[in-house]
Specification:
Chain lengths: 366, 297, 269
């Protein structure tokens, strides 16, 4: 993930609102997407991510605010003249056309000669790994091939921005993982801005330079994947991205750049102010990712802090084992994950254990 | 840009307005005229179009046309005959159609279902006048039916001379495909795992059919009943050709009033009464069945 | 597949019942006797020759073709508009408007014919082949709307958006993408409307005035028993044509379904 902040701005949202009748679909979207960035809009269904993508493409009018692409306001610019192209969720491969007719569709108004256009089509097909498929009928393609055709059809027009609406959701798990890597490579190769809509947090983390997490028509957090994962700015974002244990706590004191809390089962912990995103007026909890907790086997000792516990549930995953553990004689249960390596047996339910953890891994939500 | 919901409304209305205006002018306007005429009286004559000069002020609003339809035996007899024939035809077509719909839905391979349905619907699309010509030659004196029963030593029956029977047979044949389709569609929607569940719970095939399949297909049967009953009551050409002048149905009476007697008010009243009767019967039927089906669930 | 010999035999009997009368058509159309009755009396094509030589029949056929072709074109065009508006856009009053357009399906034709006739008389308009078209468009429009609604529904909304996205205008997107994809539906709607119109009798009879349509001509022949074999010969031709047109219509409808990768869910109606 090599994203540099000094790249020029490609897309800018200024207080974008969208109403469907009484329904407020976008509630004041602000933010910028940089040129050449792989950007994701992530959120549960109905959060407005697809609507936002479609306002960039020009398929949805906005009720108020401004959408700028490459420094120009897109108000009154219809979809067909915007410098964006889209890969649709259903791929929208025209069923009555061959692969090359699909890929070359956008070149109809291109003044180049037939031969030059044919060459462009061949190049586009080669780029997505479909060399020699040009004469095939569109309906005879597999899901993965359709997606490649959709990509070639969009990229042949050399758009400034490529929009991808849940492009991988129709593929099976293996194919999806394969295409994630291919898409990243493709984006590096062509170097244009990719904007991906997805509800799959893992997909967003794997692929993106930056991610906007959306809930209920608003951007909850806009950050790079690592920040989102390690320092989510709200309980909701933390819960949506990966798994996080939430432990009730009381705030003892707050002074300068330190916050001291008493977390149930963990005891008193001093946190850096960076571990406490702005207060939202919620009941205070501290969050801990499962992999930041470690089971200590006999003879091992913690580098940091440790707490006693009892195993309540064991979930075996092959490479990993998840343990649900009651902390220090309380009713606070945390999930932790341990890599299964030789010499580290899977423990049974009811085993008394010691759990190691580090104060730096904690995030305070309040 | 304008609110896209507004734009969508405008585009939708603009697009639908030609067919809508057409239907409004060609269907709704004439219909309103008919309803208007059915309540029209004329001092010293009968209301008709076009009105003679000076007749406009002699027009008045009245229920007397309807009173006549309901009180004079000729209208009552013909309306009743139309309804009885329609009930017979509906019963015959729906009872004949159910096993076919059931067979195609449950026993025909999925790839061949469309072909069966196509085969069943084809006769419906062939010229009805030609089919009537055929039925006349089949049912007429010494026709094909008489030839057939003659093999068994039965005297010629000349079924065509029995207007109501000939009409019922012909209409039952004509409306057969109408009854199959809605029942078939309803049966196709029956979740097959429900039937397996039924048998799993100890029902036999027959009791599963009675307790699961039949109730679930009732909406289709109801649709079939309505889709046959409604047009049959209003049938004109079958009664004219198979019933001759002796067994008119209500539509023939409308023609007589309108064109032979040139009594447009009376013709309209007969037409409106017939439609209202059919509408009331259909609505009652739907309501009764809704209660029946509702209590089953 | 389970088997049910009882049901299967019944199904075959039912088809015999449905097709029996139609199968009699060619039998007696080629039978060398004026009386339509068994036993058959030998093969002849003279009824067909008589039919070919009948000038009034040819005039009726021309009138009917005029009516039916116009009906098919107008009904299909209106059907495309209504179906597209219903499938593609949200607008207030949709159920009512679509209900009104589909209403002629359940109205007796005699009512439609008589009410239109009354209005024509009132307006002092002549009754002729043109006025028959007015009635026929009304009764075929519901079929066209139903077929076209299915055709438009089977198309992914993203197709047109994709075309827009690739630089086409809304109009050229419709022409390049949507129109070719619903073309099977359009052909199917055209053929169905044509078939209904050419077979229709009541409206043709009451609104046609002195322009005699084919069905009205055939009806007129019923008065003459000697003409029955010729009517059967004509019927043979008409039924053969209907079945041909329907098979073509069904072929296009299925191809339309297959083309957009949908699942076949039955036939017309």
């Amino acid at each position: 993930m090599t994203f540099s902040a000094d790249k020029p701005t490609m897309i800018e949202f200024k207080d974008v609102h969208k109403y469907y009748g009484d329904y407020h679909a976008l509630r004041g979207i602000n933010g910028t997407i940089k040129a050449g960035e792989f950007f994701s809009l992530l959120g549960p269904s109905g959060c407005g991510k697809t609507t936002l993508l479609r306002t960039i493409a020009g398929f949805e009018d906005i009720s108020s605010g401004v959408v700028m692409i490459d420094g120009k306001s897109m108000a009154d610019v219809p979809a067909n003249v915007r410098p964006t192209n889209m890969v649709f969720q259903s791929y929208a491969i025209f069923p009555h056309m061959s692969v090359e007719e699909n890929v070359g569709f956008g070149l109809r108004r291109d003044p180049r000669s037939k031969a030059e256009k044919a060459k462009a089509v061949d190049e586009a097909l080669e780029m997505v790994g479909l060399k020699g498929y040009g004469k095939r009928a569109a309906h005879a393609l597999s899901g993965g091939q359709r997606q490649r055709v959709a990509l070639a059809r969009a990229l042949i027009l050399k758009p400034k921005v490529l929009l991808l609406d849940e492009p991988l959701s129709a593929l099976d798990k293996k194919m999806r993982e394969h295409m994630q890597v291919e898409l990243i490579k493709l984006q590096r190769q062509v170097g244009i801005t990719f904007i991906l809509v997805t509800h799959d947090q893992e997909e967003a983390l794997v692929m993106s330079d930056r991610i906007a997490v959306m809930f209920e028509g608003e951007i909850a957090q806009l950050a790079d994947p690592e920040t989102l994962y390690r320092r989510p700015n709200s309980k909701k974002v933390a819960d949506f991205i990966g798994t996080m244990n939430f432990i009730p706590c009381t705030i003892l004191s707050e002074s300068g750049d330190k916050v001291e809390v008493d977390a149930k089962g963990l005891g008193k912990v001093a946190l850096d102010i960076h571990q406490a995103p702005p207060a939202k007026g919620e009941t205070p909890v501290v969050g801990l990712r499962p992999e930041t907790l470690t089971l200590l086997y006999p003879g091992q000792s913690a580098n940091d802090r440790e707490t006693d516990g009892v195993i309540d549930e064991v979930i075996y995953f092959g490479d990993m084992t998840y343990y649900d553990v009651y902390l220090g004689g309380t009713d606070v249960e945390v999930r932790l994950s341990m890599r299964n390596v030789p010499g580290r047996p899977v423990l049974d339910v009811g085993t008394k254990v010691r759990v190691a953890w580090s104060p730096e891994a904690l995030v305070l939500f309040r | 840009m304008a609110n896209s919901i507004e734009a969508e409304k405008r585009a939708g209305w603009a697009l639908v307005s030609p067919p809508f205006l057409y239907t409004l002018l060609a269907l709704a306007v004439p219909f309103i005229v008919i309803v208007g005429l059915s309540f029209a009286g004329l001092e010293g004559g009968r209301a008709r179009v076009p009105l003679a000069p000076g007749d406009a002020e002699k027009l008045y609003f009245t229920f007397e046309n309807f009173a006549r339809v309901l009180s004079e035996p000729i209208y009552r007899v013909v309306l009743l005959r139309s309804l009885i024939i329609a009930v017979c035809v509906t019963l015959a077509t729906v009872l004949m159609a159910y096993p076919i719909a059931y067979f195609v839905s449950f026993y025909v391979a999925p790839s061949k279902k469309a072909l069966w349905i196509f085969l069943i619907t084809i006769p419906f699309w062939t010229s009805y006048i030609i089919r009537l010509a055929l039925w006349r030659t089949i049912l007429g004196y010494n026709g094909i039916f008489d030839n057939f029963v003659g093999i068994f030593g039965i005297e010629p029956m000349n079924l065509l001379s029995n207007g109501a029977l000939a009409i019922t047979i012909t209409l039952s044949h004509a409306f057969a495909p109408f009854a199959v389709l809605p029942i078939f569609v309803a049966l196709e929607k029956v979740d097959r795992s429900l039937l397996e569940a039924g048998q799993d719970l100890g029902e036999t095939r027959w009791t599963t059919f009675l307790r699961v399949t039949l109730p679930l297909s009732m909406p289709g049967v109801m649709a079939a009943v309505l889709i046959v009953f409604i047009p049959v009551v209003g049938d004109y050409v079958t009664a004219k050709l198979m019933g001759g002048s002796t067994t008119p149905m209500i539509a023939n009476l409308v023609e007589v009033e309108m064109l032979k007697k040139r009594d447009h008010a009376m013709g309209s009243a007969v037409a409106v009464t017939a439609m209202a009767t059919v509408a009331v019967i259909s609505i009652l039927f739907v309501l009764l069945n809704r209660r029946f089906i509702g209590s089953k669930k | 597949m389970k088997s049910a010999p009882g049901l299967r035999s019944y199904a075959i009997l039912y088809l015999v019942f449905l097709y029996g009368p139609i199968l009699i058509l060619p039998l007696f159309a080629f039978n060398n006797a004026t009386v339509v009755s068994f036993p058959l009396s030998g093969f002849t094509t003279k009824w067909f020759s008589e039919m070919m030589a009948d000038q009034a029949l040819w005039r009726a056929l021309r009138t009917s073709l005029q009516i039916s072709l116009s009906t098919a074109v107008i009904a299909t065009a209106l059907g495309v508009m209504a179906a597209r508006a219903a499938v593609r856009y949200r607008w207030p009053g949709k159920p009512g408007v679509m209900g009104l357009i589909l209403l002629p399906l359940v109205l007796p034709e005699i009512i439609i014919a008589m009410s239109m006739l009354i209005v024509l008389i009132w307006l002092g308009a002549p009754q002729m082949w043109f006025t028959v078209i007015l009635g026929h468009v009304l009764i075929t429009l519901p079929f066209s709307v139903t077929i076209m609604t299915a055709a438009f529904q089977s198309i992914d909304v993203s197709f047109e958006e994709a075309a827009l996205d690739l630089g086409e205008t809304p109009i050229s997107s419709f022409r390049l993408i949507t129109l070719p994809l619903v073309m099977p539906g359009i052909i199917s709607s055209f053929l169905i409307s044509f078939t209904i119109s050419i077979d229709e009798y009541i409206i043709a009879n009451f609104l046609g005035g002195n322009d005699t349509a084919l069905s009205v001509y055939i009806y007129g022949q019923f008065r003459f028993p000697a003409k029955v074999p010729m009517v059967l010969a004509l019927g043979t031709c008409l039924v053969a044509m209907s079945i041909l047109l329907l098979t073509i219509a069904e072929y296009f409808r299925r191809r339309g379904v297959a083309r957009v990768g949908g699942k076949d869910s039955g036939g017309f109606l």
